[in-house]
Amino acid sequence: MNAPSPSDVGRLVHLGIGNFARSHTLHATDVAGGWSVVPFTGRSAAMADALNAQGGKYGLIVRGPEQDEVSIVDVLDEVHPASDIDALVRLLADPFTAVVTLTVTEKGYAAGSDPATSAPARLALGLKARREAGVTEPIALVSCDNLTGNGQVLREAVLAELDEETAAWFDGHVDVISSMVDRITPSADDGAAQTVRDATGLVDAVPVVTEPFTEWVIENRFRGRRPEWEKAGVQFTDDIEVHELRKLRLLNGAHTLMAYAGQVAGVQRVDEAISHREVRALVEQLWAEARSTLPLPADELDAYTAALEDRFRNPRLADNLIRIAADGSVKLPVRALPVIAERGGPDKAPGEVAAVAAWTAWVTDRVRGGDEVQDPKAEAIAAAAVLEDTTERVSGLLALLGVPAVDPLVDAVIAEERRLPRP
Ligand code: CS2
Question: Which residue, judged by its Cα, is nearest atom 1 of ligand 1?
Fold first, then answer.
């Protein structure tokens, strides 16, 4: 088979259309041009209704430190709710569909076997139909979520749901590809719809606000067709891991630390957290530790963290810490725990320990104050957070991150909780 050229057109199916996909991967696919894009929502179907009502178009507000740039993204065909499994199966069985991108968040990869609630299980149904239809064109599944080796994680999640015949067919027909995605995309503020309307005339119920920075690095392993994402500045690489680790440990790690330590210290937004003297000192500490685990030259890391600091300080982005605080039980094991382990234990990684301690302190405050904790393990978090005995409470919470009760991290977190800045 001749490798088709990347400029061949095709259809891209996207799973999990939220704000991030619309500011980043789908926007890049629009810039690349020529492809048909059929998105599916996450659990809530509301985004499908809203986007279909406005012909799939939406306003993109790129919010720099001084001004906004507003454009209309018009790349989407009909948007389907995730529950429309028949449509997904039909699309995957069609040879014109060559790429599936996913933004289903960290928890989406451990969602189990029920196609109603699990994207990997739905993909398994679609791939079975593709095999049964006799499609020989390769299809690529591209993970765009914040996990190390996200392609590998996706591959295992899908393979776990496949019947034997489709599992045997899989490697010959499916490329599962890792990618590193980066563009900070807060929840849109109340004025965003008016901003889009003033600038473009579009009446938009679901505008997207994002930052100027954007980065997408994709593993260079497509056997089939794909959009010409190079036109949108996307980089292709043979070594994705270093890109993933740099972003997860420096950007997302600092985000997670600020989300919890910032709120415990009494601030609500990322720009406030990075300007808070003690929270910022913790971020510096975490960066020093995370950097030591990354095989990259110091000047490159200096430039990266300097740029991150500017991005975090963007006073107009209004990124709320509560957005980033969601799903801590699946984020900390990716962002903080591996650095603690690679450094040789909690006493060698006080900044990372602070991120974990800020989470235990924050969930405890929330639960005891009667506030919701958004997390796939919310019930177990609530049960542990109310325990009176500190050691029981902290070890109960850390158990939810996979940390054993006898681990030195338990005592380190208890000590660090007491040192966290408070209002
Ligand atoms: C954030 C990310 O929600 C989170 O945990 O850290 O959404 C972050 O804004 C993006 O990964 C930036 O690319």
Answer: 324
DSSP 345-405: SGGG-HHHHHHHHHHHHHHHHHHHTT----STTHHHHHHHHT-SSHHHHHHHHHHTTT--T
> From CA 380, how far away is CA 195, in angstroms rounded?
42
**Index of the ligand 1 atom closest to the CA of residue 319:** 9
Are the C-beta atoms of 170 and 231 separated by less than 8 Å? Answer: no
Cβ-count burial 369-389 (b if 16+ within 10 Å, e if not): eeeebebbbbeebbebbeeee
* Domains observed in the chain: 11-238 (3.40.50.720), 242-419 (1.10.1040.10)
Helix axes 390-399, 350-368, angle to 10 degrees: 110
Contact (CB, 8 A) for 219 and 151: yes
Which atom number of ligand 1 is nearest to the Cα of residue 185? 9
Which runs of E-coded beta strand occur in 193-325? 208-210, 215-219, 235-237
Residue among 243, 251, 263 whose CB has most ligand 1 atoms within 8 A, to mutate: 251
pTM over 0.85: yes
Tens-place pLDDT, residues 280-330: 999 999 999 999 999 999 999 999 999 999 999 999 999 999 999 999 999
Measuring from each residue's beta carbon to the nearest atom of ligand 1, which residues come in under 6 Å?
Answer: 146, 182-184, 252, 255, 323-324, 331
C-alpha to C-alpha distance for 339 and 391, rounded to whole angstroms = 23
